Each structure stands twice: as structure tokens, then as C-alpha cells.
């Protein structure tokens, strides 16, 4: 089976957009990813510090299901959405900046009870520097005093169920947070009032615990990516792949987790990074519902665990190249060395 295949091949084929989740520690990034990828929202799980990048591929059928109440007539043309959660802890600065650099679009999570915090501002600066589009998830709306839970409901509908007091507190907090964004030089507006998308960033109120607002968030992400990034998202046979992490796994030896941004990887492909080896197996990071296991080939975009011999010298942040029949291996090795020097100088600076 090939995963990441478009439902209708033949039309202009788009790859899945890569979306990363950024924001202050404890704003709910991990929980939001859990909520997006699960069909049923679980409650009461203890939060912890995410120690590594976690990623999930959300197939478009799942997104269609989650957004059906919105009755959006717009077509969803991408095979899915690849969501990457970059750890918020200070110690993972380097990892965070590596993950976010690969994103097409981002979700910036802000806790409605706390507003903008130092890492929110750090995230804004990273996004601005890389000119990455983003949508603000104004999370934890369920913590507004007196909030009536409307599980997995569009936020537009859930807001109508709330008392006048809740609506008043909501408006007050939103106004304050819009002002805080303004102080950072950013125009933001609630998604349903935003008439100037592109210049003004949209805010979608969400609860990662009970799921309100997730439908709007998903729909907006996909629609915005499809509308503004067709060129970037057009599927390409040229492999574009970056190493995220090098990990020793019991029973598998050293493995690498990569982000396949474009193209397709096959079992048996000859790859060159600082390493030179042949892919033994390819396992995508998938939603639990899709099951685990290895695939013969995987199409972009996807986060994939690769097993192969000699991966010990792979370096996080560098590109992996696939050798094609007519390629000059020495030429590719030159490219790799340039890449290494770049990554090393970036590490020295940080
Ligand atoms: P992260 O550090 O940004 O990844 O934050 P977590 O996802 O670990 O969440 C931090 C804490 O906030 C955890 O205890 C979560 O259960 C809680 N939390 C996250 N999102 C929500 C939300 O929407 N509503 C409420 N009430 N709690 C939330």
C-alpha cells in the first residue's frame, strides 16, 4: 500500500501540508495534537513535558469527518495534514527551531487565561523570520468560568450555547489578547470576523480537552494552505528529506526520524547524508487508528522512522539524498559536506 496518495490522482497532485504546533509551555500544544488526531477525545490525562518531536499524519477523510458540521463546500484537495508538535521546554530550543523550519503553516497556541508569554513571542519571531503563515488557537476556552461543554462542536455553535457572562468574559479576554499581539506588531482577529486574511492573522478559540473549535481550526488550516501555497505543495518526484532525530532503539540499532517534505521514499533506496547506506525499512508516524508497521514506499509529506545499517553518523538537521541511477555519488557527497558545514555553524551560533 502507498500512504499519502491523493484520492483523485490526475488532478493537480498536492502533497500534504506540514503544520507545526508552537507556543508557550503548558499552553496545550501536546493536548491539541492529541485532540486533532483522535476520533474520540479522552479526558483527564496528565500533561507532561514532551521530550521529543512527535508527529502525526491526519488523513483527509478524518478531517472531512471532523469538519462535516461546518458544511463547508470547499474541496479538500490534499491527501492529509502532517502535524508536528515541537517541544516547548527551554532545553529544546534547537529542536524547536529545526522542526519549525520545515513547516508550511503553523498553529500558534495561546492560553486564553494567560495571553502571550515569552515563548509565544519567541515563536512569533521564528514564524516571522521564516515568513511562515500561521493561525492562532486560543486554547482552553473551557476554563472560562461557567463554560458549558459542547464536545467536539464547532466553536461558532458552542459560543451560542454560552451564558451572557461567559460571552462577556470571552470578548474581554479576546480584546486583551488582540492588543497584546498588536504590541508585537501583529494584526489578529477572530476567524469569523477576519476580512483581511493574509494581513490579519485569524484566531480560532479551541479547547483541546473537549474539542470545541477543532473543526474550524482544521478547516481553516487546510483551506488557507490550499489557497496560498499551491506551488509549494505541488507534488514533486525529487526527494526533499531532512533528519529530525538520530535515536538508538532496542532491537533496531540506530534509527533516524526524518521529515519527508516532498517526493517518495522506497525500501531499498540508496541514501546519502554524512552516511551512505540502503534503507532497510520505512515506518511512518501514524495515528493509532491506521495501525503501525512498515511500508514499501511512502509519499510526502510524512515523518518516517528509517532503519538501515551505519546510521550512527547521521546528523539531525541535515538533508538526506536519494541516489538515482545516473547520479554521481561524489557530487552528492559534496552537497552533503556543504550542508554539514551549514548545520554545524548554526549549532555553534546557538
Ligand atoms: P504543552 O506544554 O504546550 O504541550 O501543554 P500540554 O498539552 O502538556 O498541556 C498543559 C496542561 O494544560 C495539561 O495539564 C493539559 O491537560 C492542560 N490543557 C491543555 N489544553 C487544555 C484545554 O483546552 N483546556 C483545559 N482545561 N486544559 C488544557
Automatic annotation (TrEMBL):
Signal peptide: none
Family from the record: Belongs to the TRAFAC class translation factor GTPase superfamily. Classic translation factor GTPase family. IF-2 subfamily.
Residues annotated as domain Tr-type G: 14-230
UniProt protein name: Eukaryotic translation initiation factor 5B
